[in-house]
């Protein structure tokens, strides 16, 4: 009996000493010392998180005293100034919100700006000891940034080594992620960059080698999805992302879901793999993938075209042009499905060493809702040389010159393709030399007036008419 009474008394005492539901104080609102905070969390002290109080100064203080890991409780943290993270001065730093912290950016500029001092490459010998000690792998994870000022942005970084952005949501800003100056070995993973006025991932006047963008939703950003301008970019990997509708309205400036422009710089060594990339054809000159490879001169060659691009296993639809390559040297376009290109499915201009194989370009009537039947489709090569088109399936009426149009080009091999129910013309050749067209199945069983192959000013080119199965029309 005595032991039972003792146990009962102990249980009551424990119950009375335990915190009651709703009575806990949030560590993020405590004014404890840095040492106490670090031991307890490390939660950022002196914050309210109600979306009303300006938290900029308190967060900046936590950064400046070198707190390192800055963790935020559930709440809405209002900022009116950019949180400046000078990595060389404050040391390694992370911003972590566990998916429950939202930052309202009520001022101009980025919510968080990371500044490092790395001026080397990705080679280990070029990374200074101070960079490894103070600056490596700045991290943002599990937060949301919402722009509430017309000039607000999400994250900006320069001079960083191994910047890592994960499980980040940015919306309603100008640019969601803005990389400038020089960075190396960047990772964006599992991020939602949604409905921003500018660009989702903006590589802007940047020298950047090694960047991985994977498993992200990059959608409805008015200035483009992933955009590189005036930048030297190498080793850009975009994989298994959903990239949609990154254009403005009918009166907006032309852009693309992925737009890589080598003008005034150079871009090469790019892989775009396993993504769904689509929408919207209503925007002017919209494209899913647009790459301009014409780059700045190099002293040891006259070649101005950069490239080495892989576009593989993507789902591409509902824009003016699905894939548009200009002055690109070295590209593999493999295993993609392309449809609803309202101007064309694929445009190559001034390109060489391009392989297009194993792609499906089908007009599926199930997509003829709205104005879907008006998509023109088609593939056009202009001023190209040394290209291979093999093993592709083209199906459905093309509402322009031909399903495949080749102009002012040479040393083109077109072989082993099925071109079916294509409309007026299957293949059109104009001013083509030193090429070969063979082993293609070209049939239009629904229209006896269709022309399998149409040619004008074709020289030194082998064409196997016995494999065409329908009449040729030779224009002189």
Automatic annotation (TrEMBL):
Right handed beta helix domain mapped to chain residues: 150-253
Pfam family, one: Beta_helix
Biased composition (Low complexity): 29-42
Ranges where the Periplasmic copper-binding protein NosD beta helix domain occurs: 274-437
Residue ranges, annotated region (Disordered): 15-46
InterPro entries per record: Beta_helix, NosD_dom, PbH1, Pectin_lyas_fold, Pectin_lyase_fold/virulence
The protein's name in its UniProt record: Pectate lyase superfamily protein
Organism: Roseiconus nitratireducens
């Amino acid at each position: 009996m005595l032991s039972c009474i003792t146990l009962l008394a102990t249980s009551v005492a424990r119950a009375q000493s335990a915190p009651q539901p709703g009575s806990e104080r949030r560590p993020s609102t405590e004014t404890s010392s840095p040492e106490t905070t670090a031991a307890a969390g490390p939660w950022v002290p002196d914050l309210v998180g109600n979306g009303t109080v300006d938290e900029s100064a308190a967060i900046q203080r936590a950064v400046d005293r070198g707190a390192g890991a800055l963790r935020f409780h559930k709440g809405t943290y209002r900022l009116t100034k950019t949180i400046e993270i000078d990595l060389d001065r404050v040391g390694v730093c992370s911003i972590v919100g566990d998916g429950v912290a939202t930052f309202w950016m009520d001022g101009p500029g980025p919510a968080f700006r990371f500044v490092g001092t790395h001026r080397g490459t990705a080679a280990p010998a070029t990374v200074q000891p101070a960079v490894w000690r103070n600056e490596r792998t700045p991290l943002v994870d599990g937060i949301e940034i919402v722009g509430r000022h017309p000039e607000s942005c999400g994250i900006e970084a320069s001079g960083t080594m191994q910047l890592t952005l994960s499980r980040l949501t940015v919306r309603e800003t100008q640019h969601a992620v803005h990389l400038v100056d020089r960075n190396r070995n960047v990772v964006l993973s599992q991020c939602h960059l949604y409905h921003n006025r500018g660009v989702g991932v903006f590589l802007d006047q940047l020298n950047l080698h090694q960047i991985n963008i994977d498993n992200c939703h990059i959608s409805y950003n008015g200035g483009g999805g992933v955009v590189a301008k005036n930048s030297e970019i190498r080793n850009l990997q975009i994989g298994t992302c959903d990239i949609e509708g990154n254009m403005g309205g009918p009166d907006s400036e032309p852009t693309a879901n992925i737009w890589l422009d080598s003008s005034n710089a150079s871009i090469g060594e790019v892989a775009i793999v396993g993504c769904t990339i689509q929408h919207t054809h209503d925007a002017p000159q919209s494209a899913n993938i647009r790459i301009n490879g014409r780059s700045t001169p190099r002293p040891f060659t006259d070649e101005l075209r950069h490239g080495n691009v892989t576009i593989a296993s993507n789902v591409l639809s509902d824009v003016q042009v699905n894939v548009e390559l200009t002055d690109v040297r070295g590209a593999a376009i493999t295993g993609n499905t392309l449809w609803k290109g309202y101007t064309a499915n694929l445009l190559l201009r001034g390109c060489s060493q391009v392989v297009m194989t194993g792609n499906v370009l089908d007009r599926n009537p199930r997509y003829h809702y709205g104005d879907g039947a008006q998509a023109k489709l088609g593939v056009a090569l202009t001023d190209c040389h040394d290209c291979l088109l093999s093993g592709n399936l083209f199906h459905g009426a093309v509402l322009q010159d031909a399903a495949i149009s080749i102009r002012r080009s040479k040393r083109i091999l077109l072989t082993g393709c099925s071109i079916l129910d294509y409309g007026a013309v299957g293949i059109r050749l104009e001013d083509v030399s030193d090429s070969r067209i063979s082993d293609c199945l070209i049939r239009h069983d629904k229209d006896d007036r269709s022309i399998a192959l149409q040619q004008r000013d074709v020289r030194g080119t082998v064409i196997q008419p016995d494999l065409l199965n329908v009449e040729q029309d030779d224009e002189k």
